[in-house]
Amino acid sequence: xxxxxLRRDIFSRFGFEQDHRPEAVKHAVxxxxxVREQVRRHPRRLFWWTTAAEIRDARKQGKIAALMGVEGGxxxxxxxxxxxxxxxxxxxYMTLTHSGNDEWADSSTDxxxxxxxxxxxxxxxx
Length: 126
Known about the structure:
The mean pLDDT is 85. Helices cover 37% and strands 18% of the residues. With 126 residues, the protein is of the alpha/beta class. The chain has helices spanning 21-41, 52-60, 80-88, 119-125, and strands at residues 8-14, 46-48, 64-71, 91-95.
């Protein structure tokens, strides 16, 4: 990463929509923990960031700034509490869907069933 001149990386966590709710959440948490462990194990190379100022600080320190995201809203199991936990784990973006619809959002690669977002989906976006 460093030899290639990489200054920042986005570690996208994803799981398949057909995962059952508890399995999707566990999968997301396991993947988040794996990335956090790599940052912990390599503090001289990697740096968590959540702001542009932190990216600049990481660059000044010669570190690679690490951002984490979640690909697919199904990984929060339709639970705003899980969404809050994911955000608390320094995940800074979440796509509403991955490669198919979830329970509250339509994917551009699937047949629409929610007319875009359900009321819960609008709460997630808000």
